[in-house]
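We emphasize that the prediction below concerns an isolated chain of 550 residues; any contacts that depend on oligomerization or on bound cofactors are therefore not represented. The input was used exactly as deposited, without trimming of termini.
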Amino acid sequence: MKKQLVAALVSVILAMVIIAVPGNAYAQTAPKNQSVQIKNVIFLIPDGMSMGGVTLARWFQGGKPLAMDELACGLVRTYNADTPIADSAPAGTAYATGYKTNSPYIAVLPSKAGMWGVPPATTPFRPVATILEAARLAGKSTGLVTTCEIPHATPADFSAHAPSRKNYDDILEQQVYNGLTVVFSGGYQYLESKNRKDKEDLVQELKNLGYTYITTKNEFDSLKITGNSLVWGLFAPVDLAYEIDRDKNTEPSLAEMTKKAIDILSQNNKGFFLMVEGSKIDWAAHANEPVGLVHDILAFDEAVRVAVQFAKSRNDTIIIIASDHGNSGITIGDRSITSGYDKIPLSTFLKPLEAAKKSGYVFASLLKEDKSNLLDVLANVYGITDATQEEIDLIKNTKLDAYTGMSLIGGLIAKRAKIGFTTGGHTGEDVVLYVYAPQGAKKLTGTVQNTDIAWYMAEMLGLNLYGASQYLYVPAEELFKASGAKLETDFSNPNNPVLVVKTGTREIIFPVNKNYCIVNGKNQKLDGVTVYIAETKSWYINAKALDFLK
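Result of the prediction step, given as a token string:
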């Protein structure tokens, strides 16, 4: 009787999933009134890029149009479930899942709501499937390319689930086990056992899972691409360098990583999903440093160019570009030119930026301990030959690190370039939407919500995010209720708790953050990772687990 009950429950849940997802088990179906079938989506996110930065970068390259310019087609509203100014974690969650949430949540539902158009928060912290996970379930290849460390907020939003973006240990472990095809980023120190609370060696885990693991530019350049390539490439201990500081012999560019990722992912005839982030546009904006900002925007635009060239060579690929939020309130023009602004030549705004050979991020590292070479560094690296005594004294009396140095240099250059900033934080304005869609495909236009982009991508790929969520992240008590199983959380290893499910003579162990369970001592693969939410003491399990109760 018990076996029959379990079997019936499995059938019901799987039936619900199949009904919810087009084409039975995540197969593609073209949207109505569309003459082409979309196989691939490339979503490029210039993190923290505001229009002032875009305009400045365009002028910095002589006024020539950017690669993304021709694709501009609307605006994106970026607010959180509960506040008007977004952080990267909830903003990326909206793009990845189709749901607005709160800071600092990663791909889980909000605990607070209240903003216009946001439904009440009824199931706080429940994980919801990402477009990347839904694409993987459909047999597509998936990839992440970023210039930050891989467990950082935006890449985490597409590949993990956690109540806090700061929980790198859980996020990265989920990323390792979430079936990604290719990862190019920074952050290899977070894989190393010595840097993890649970002391797991995730480098070895990647190798055990069949990944080629690389950390150098030479390995990147010589990477052989086959139809079944699985690659993790992390090229710095933490984040990659700002473009202006990048050593071309040790780190690939964002454009190079994007091209290589597309080359790998496009081997799959079922298609792919790729997210590309220009992460450090945001970091430069936080520091109010215009040199690092314009160079990283232009580096991002080169990645856009690579993606668009690929898309235009075929008729099955959509490109979407949108910042997750604004940052810094950057303006071409500050309070010093309130009068006479219309008489200021372009060179006034550009020459101080053009004179800089490095970003402000490396400023502190260029100074001697006693700062005796300060004037030489200012003149020879940053083109500043007119530093005032007040500016010199400020630098000499400040305890410098990479971040304070960047802010100080940014301030000196911005002052001379008449570039204004209103804040060192994010801003709440709409951001520009850019879309490339082939002839015959639906194109997203107008003023849209950030959540609309997730549903648009899912529609174009013939996927159903809701169905994927119902399949991948079922509350454990709900999943096993009909079976009469006993559930117990084992905290004997507090950094790696496990869920123990017992029924009759069968015991199933679900390790947190992994895509397998252990049935009577034998590993059995699941279709998604197991997530534990400490805030609600809740486990979320892939519905496939019911198969192992039969």
